[in-house]
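Board work, copied verbatim: carnitine O-palmitoyltransferase
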Amino acid sequence: MAEAHQAVAFQFTISPEGINLHLSYQALNQIYLSGLRSWKKRISRIKNRIIKGVYPASPSSWLFVVIAIMATMYMQSDPSMGLIAKIRERIPLSLSLSTQGQTMLSALLFSTLLWLSLILALRFCLKLLLSYHRWMFEQHGCISTKTKVWATLVRLLSGRKPLLYSYQTSLPHLPVPPIKDTLEKYLESVKPLHDSAGFQRMKRLTAEFEKSLGNRLQRYLKLKALWATNYVSDWWEEYVYLRSRSPIMVNSNYYGMDFLYVTPTANQAARAGNTITALFLYRRKVNREELNPSRIPGTVIPLCAAQCERMFNTTRTPGEETDVLQHWQDSEFVAVYHRGRYFKLWVYQAGRLLSPREIQYQIQRILDDPSPPSPGEEKLGALTAGNRTPWAQVRKQFFSSGVNKRSLDCIEKAAFFVTLDDQEEGMMGEDPSVNLDRYAKSLLHGKCYDRWFDKSFSVVVYKNGKNGLNAEHSWADAPIVSHLWEFTLATDTFHLGYTPDGNCRGEVERSLLPPQRLSWDIPLEVQTQVSESLAVAQALADDVDCHVFPFREFGKGCIKKMKMSPDSFVQLALQLAYYRDRGTFCLTYEASMTRLFREGRTETVRSCSNESCAFVLELEAGEDREHCRKLFRKAAEKHQNLYRLAMTGSGIDRHLFCLYVVSKYLGVESPFLKEVLSEPWRLSTSQTPVQQMELFDLVNHPEFISLGGGFGPVADDGYGVSYIIMGEEMINFHVSCKHSCTETDSHKFGFQISQAMLDLMSLLNPDFKEATKSNPGKQS
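↓ predict structure ↓
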C-alpha cells in the first residue's frame, strides 16, 4: 500500500478542528516533471513544423532576405518595384508609426512575402526534379548529360540536413498511367500463363473493357488523383486490409527474426529490458524527426516517410464491416503478456525513460509474479486471431465500459505489445533446421492467443533470450518495420550492451511502482467466442508449413561480379525452382515500393515474364549453355525494367485495382476486372531490404547476421517466399505454404530454390561448379 499512497499527490481529512491537508511533494514533483516532458515535446513538434514548413530553405534564410532588402533600401534603391510603398499606404494609421517606422514595417512585410514566395518556388522546383525518373532506366556508366545536370540540381536543393518528414511536401503525386499502356502490359504479363485459346479470350475481354467501361472509369480515377494526395493508398489500406473479415494472423501479419548465430544474453528479462529501451529510443528519434529520411541506396533521392507516423501507439480496432486504425499521440507504457496474464508496464517515471536495468527489474517482477490468470483471461488474445466480425461484436457488447474497457484501453493505447514467451526458440539443438522452422511459426502465430495481433507490432522475448516481432500490415509495409528492427537489434547489442553476467547496464531505483496487473470480467458469452476464435485460428496455424534456411554458397558479391542484379538473379531462381516443383509457371507477385511518391506504398512486379519462361524452358530442355546465358541476361534485364516501371508509378496491378474500386462505387460490373482481381498469386515473393548496414560490422562480427522475416502463403495452393540479402556472402530464405495442399511442400521447395541458385551461378560462371565440387563442406 506504500506505493499507492505515494501515487496520490495530496490528501485531506475533515475533523472538528478543521481541514488537515497533506501534500506529497514526491508525487507533485513527478507530475511536474511529466508535464515538463509533455511541454518539451510540444515545443519540439512546433519547432520541427516550422523547419519542415520552410524546407528546402531554412528559418535563418528569412533574416538573410530581410537584411538584403534593408541593405538595398539603405542604398536608395527599391528592390520591390513600388510594392513596399503600396504596402505602406495600406498600413492602418492607428499604428501611430513614424514615416520611417512605416517604411521599415512595410519592408519587413515585403521581405517575409518574398521569402515565402522563394520557398514555394524552391519547393516546386524540387518537386519537378523529383518527378524525373528516367535516370533509373539508364545503364551504369552511360549516364546522360541531362541526368548529370538533374542530379547536381537535386543535391543543391537537398543540401541542408533534412528532418525525417522534410521532403514530404516536395514529393510528387503518384500519376495515373494511361489505361491503354496498363492493359497492354497486363496482356504481356499473362501471355505465358495461357494457351492460345485462353490468351485470345483475355485479349477480347481486355478490348471490350477498354472500349466500353475502361475510359469512363479512368476519368473518375484521374479526378480522384487531382484531389487526393495518392490515388491508391487510402483505398489499398481500406479494401485490401481493413475491410477483410478473415483472420489477420497468418493471412496479413508478418514477422521479423533475431540474429541467426548469436543471442546477446540468455537472460529473458535483460533481453526484454534492452529491446524495449531500444524501441523507445527509436520512437524518440521518430518523434523528434532525428532519423535521416530514407533514400534510394547510393543516391540522394528521398523516399516517403508517411508510414512512420503510425508506428507506435497504434492499434487496429475491429468493426463489423471494416476495421479502423487508431493512433494516439503519445504513450508512456507498454502492455505485457506472460503466462495468461496481462500487465501495464510504465517505462517513464517523472518524464524520464527508465534505464534498461530498471526495465529488466520490472520485467523480472512480472516473471516472478505467481498469480494465476483470471477466468477467461489466458486466451483472450485469440479474439484478435480469429474472424474480425465476431471480435467486433464482442468488443462492442462487452468491452465498451467498466473494467474490461479500462484494461482493453491499456493494451490498445500502449506504445506496443510485449509477449514474454515461456518457450525457447532459435537455431539450436541437435536439429537446428527444424528449430528454425518452429521459430518462424512461433513468431507468425505463436499459440494463437499469446500475441495481440491488432497492435501495430508485438515484440516476443523467449525464455532463452531470443527475440522477434509480429507486425500488423495495414499501417505500414515491411521495409518500415525492417528499419525499426535493424535499429533495435544494433542498439540492443552494440550500444546498450550487457554486463559479463548477462544483465542490462545501469542502476535500479528500488522505489519503482510494480507493473500493474490488468483486471477483467469475462462472462461466459465472451469465453465461448474466445474458444470459437481460437479454433479458427488454431486450424489456420496448424495448416501453415514454414521453412527457413540460410543460403551460404554465395551472396550478392558473387552475383554482382557477374554484372547482374542480385534481386533479378533470385527472382529467376524462384521461377526455375517453381517450374521444377510444379511443372508449370504461375502468376508471380513480387512486392516493389512506390515511396518515390507521396504516401506511396507498394506495387506489384509480375516476375513471371515471357523472357523468364523462355529461359527456364530452354535451360530445362538442355539447350546450348551460351544460348541459355543470353536468355538469362535478357530475362534479368526484363525483370529489372519491370521493377523500375513499378517503382516509377507505371505498374499494372494498383491501377487495375483502383479501376475496380471505381466500378464498384458506380455499381457497374466488369467481367475483365472481376477476372483480373480474382487471379491467384501462387508464388508471392518479397525481398526484405537491409537499410542500415553501417550499424552492423560484419567484417569484425560476421556472426551478427539477421535472419530477416517472412509471411504466410497468399494462395491456398501456393508459396510465400521472403528473402534477405545479408552482406556479400549470404541470402536467407523464408518459405511458407499450407499442409492442406498436397502439391506444396516448403522443405521440398526450399531445396529446389537452393539447387536453382547453384545451377544459375554455374551457368554464369562455369568455374563456380568446379569450386563447389572441390569444397563440398560449404554447402548447407
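Confidence is low (pLDDT under 50) at residues 1-8, 773-780.
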